[in-house]
Amino acid sequence: MATESPPGQLGVKAPRFTLPATDGRSYTLDDVRGPNGLVVVFMCNHCPYVQAALPRIVRDAQDLAKLGIGTVGINSNDGIAYPEDSFERMIALAAELHLPFPYLYDESQQVARAYDAVCTPEFYGFDSELSLRYRGRLDASRKDPLPEADRDLFEAMQQIAQTGRGPDTQHPALGCSIKWKFE
């Protein structure tokens, strides 16, 4: 089911985390931030919206790194109910695509809850002080990439790095709902 993200509460600090990554390490918020900001992407393996966006996510992460902005991917989906999103499959995807950023597993789903994440892919853009300045979409593409789509996330983060402020107009992310564990 397609889910749209709510507006971000701009100015809030990034919730801290320590999560295992597909490269065998654990990362904290401070490990993944860049000197000019951080993009946190809630993503997974199986969602068709994420699959369609992955080449552009990789492109933007590489371009943002040149601007001193870090990127991290976090999978919070229930890997038991959705085996394609298991940690083992995450490791395979990260290796296959040579992801240029850490891909972390939020098995407890506590990090997704702390960020109020609702869908994949969903993008959070933080400034150099780790204050939220952007919450929304990568671009106007959905499951079918639009070649001429504005690079909403990249342009927002470029502005944040230069001015400390996010864009006045922010568009919600749209993707698969996070697959919550039911207890």
TrEMBL record:
Pfam families per the UniProt record, alphabetical: AhpC-TSA
Record's keyword terms, sorted: Plasmid
CDD domains reported for this sequence: PRX_like1
Keyword Cell membrane found: no
GO molecular function list: antioxidant activity; oxidoreductase activity
InterPro entries listed in its UniProt record: AhpC/TSA (IPR000866), PRX-like1 (IPR047262), Thioredoxin-like_sf (IPR036249), Thioredoxin_domain (IPR013766)
Gene3D superfamilies documented for this protein: Glutaredoxin (3.40.30.10)
Record-annotated Thioredoxin domain positions: 8-159
Keyword Transcription regulation belongs to the record: no
Protein name: Alkyl hydroperoxide reductase/ Thiol specific antioxidant/ Mal allergen
Organism: Paraburkholderia phymatum (strain DSM 17167 / CIP 108236 / LMG 21445 / STM815)
